[in-house]
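<given_protein>
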Amino acid sequence: MAGVEANVTQPAQVEISKTGSVPTEGYEKKCIFCRIVNNELGTELLHCDEEISCFRDIKPGAPHHYLVVPSKHVGNCKSLSKEHVPLVKRMVETGKEILQKNNVTDLSDVRFGFHWPPFCSVTHLHLHVLAPASQMGFMSRLFYRLNSYWFITAEQLIELLNSKGESN
């Protein structure tokens, strides 16, 4: 109809505060997560601010499976230093917020963690947030296994980074 503007609204759980321009610093054009955060692929962002973004995993390992990533490109968890501890903690807090917004109230039945290189398919740092962990299938229990050499919990990563010196 003439004179009528279409209002496009974001779902209630989405928080976006981004500029419309393509970022240059902290953006890797070949990185799928950088492209998702930059809204190039049409993926629904459940959270997006200057530091942290969150979206659903395309191959969910649990009824709730989210990926929390830095909005700017950061390498995998093996490349981090002690200076990254606040970022990792903020990623965990964002994961908890997204779970709560999606009616997951039992935070004792969740799994927060990272795949340890070379067992990560995307080199952009990403936190897996899975809930309820008790409902993960056999393969997911294997892929996101605690105390394995391919998966490290967020707490273990923070402890490891805190034990490092101020630089790598």
User: Anything to note?
Assistant: Residues 143 and 151 are 7 Å apart (CA to CA).
